Amino acid sequence: MQNQATKKTSRRQMTSFVIGSQRTPGPLVSTIQVKGHLRLLRAFHNLRVIVEECKDRRIPAFAVQMDRDSRWMWFITLAIDRFERWVKSLKFVPLEKFISKQFPPIDVWMIWHAYLLNPCWYEEDCERLLVLQQLRLLNMFVVASIDVGKLAQNQPTESRIAAWHKQTGSFFDPFDAIEELTHKQMECPRCRTRVFVPFVNDNGTGYSEQQFSALCPLPGCRLKITKGNLAVAKFVRDLTESEDGSENYMAGSLFFGNGKRDPRRAKAIKDQLMQSSQFCRRNPQSSNQRIARLDWEREIKEGIGYSWPLLKDAIAIALKDQPEATRTKIVSAYEDDSPFSINLIAAVLRQGIFIKRIDELGWLRPGAFKDGDKLQVLEHALLRYHCFLDLAAASPNLIPVPTLDIDLIWHTHQLMGGRYGVDCEIYIGRRVDHPLTTEEAVLSTALDNTCHAWQSRFHIPYMQCGCTAPNETVFQRLIRIIRQYTGTRTHLQVSLHPDHLPATHPSIHNAVLDLERGAFGSFSKPAHPQRDERDLVRVSRPLGVRKKRSRKTDPEPPQHMEEGFVAEKMTEQHVPLSPAPPYASRHGSAVHFMHDV
User: What's the confidence (pLDDT) of residue 148?
Assistant: First the structure.
């Protein structure tokens, strides 16, 4: 009977979901888009393997001598430089021309991908930064309209390679570009002289290295350039930007912590900074607006001695009546010289942890979801994601922590750029942010709260991977496991595919671990504790290029659940796509589906 019901439902599509008080016209994310995203992740994974294991002969000898983590961070640094060149050179073209001629190489897409997965920061930067204005026009129409996974894996056309070289002046293939990407171009924070510094050098002070420093070549300046005084110059440049330009507020000030956008508050924060005694404009010595602005910049930088710690103190004093979280968020956007507001190296590294977990599930294998049986894994993940959004709509103060399956769909939705923000506003009333980093204690509490809120709203467990539920005693866990294996039923059972169950483990790649307490001090035991702990500790520490060190060698039955709100969150129409998750009957063995409940 169950097989017949499954075949019947497989001819239908989950075409409508209820999120909060509204009903969607269809799924916000499709299985086709998720499969395309998985192909893209597989391309990223393969690229990382090539770099870490030196599988391309074009990798230079000095990089081969690094340890694998440092070599990967060096490669990411070069990719960010290429991404910056690309966005500066972009011109708006029709969609077809963009795909055929302007779609970027895989390493640049990897940076854009990590950037998109920080939606509030990305949206704010697209609105605030002139360098991203052309990219902003592509967000709504391009990212959601093409199969980026398939395109990333295909061989680039000659016209696409030529267009890239003409726009950026560099080779299309990232390994061809390595030979020419030896120096980073920047401005001296004091005299604005153009300076070219090596990414890596023999004494460990290259741009991509932890102890970066360089000397301004201008005889009358000779400033020692560091990441700290470059960060000072970045903050002062944004602060003194003309109000009629695109940059009319400071990074980190547009969105509240709950995802609400408030440009008036952002404008007030910038005015507060500009009027403070630490940053206010003195009597201008020139009537020329540009010269007067440069004088103002110099006054601020010299007043704090080009010191990043002194600048942070000055910001704290100027914004003393603002919440500490607001001050911390603004300061975090100015900790380096990148024009972007987030640390893109850390963003790519943290996405690498997620990609590794998805690969361990077997989801990156070609054809992993080709047949109908395995396709149900993605279909049920889509259902759980829409319930996840409904939970966010119903709980405005909740910091929702996704499981791996939900996080995959969430990432796919965020890759739609502007469409994700519009969907959030329509159905939830705010942006549901996907923060780059969250303190371990905060994330642990948020996970507990998410589990409780899900159980309360849908009356089924959130995680079905076998992990200890929040506040569950050893005895309760033992009873639950016994019921799993003996088949004792509660009221209603949702049937997840056996391959799906490990994917209901929490996704914690954005955790910033408390290294003194030990990794995962507050979490349930992760599925791969040694691997996860090593990766998260690595990205929780300061990044730096190191020499090579010695290397160390590196299905449960479904849970039983009660009838609840999940059944009410999906409606069925007679259009072909996917079966709804089957449920066991409350009063017998007959199987019902969500549209029948």
Answer: 61
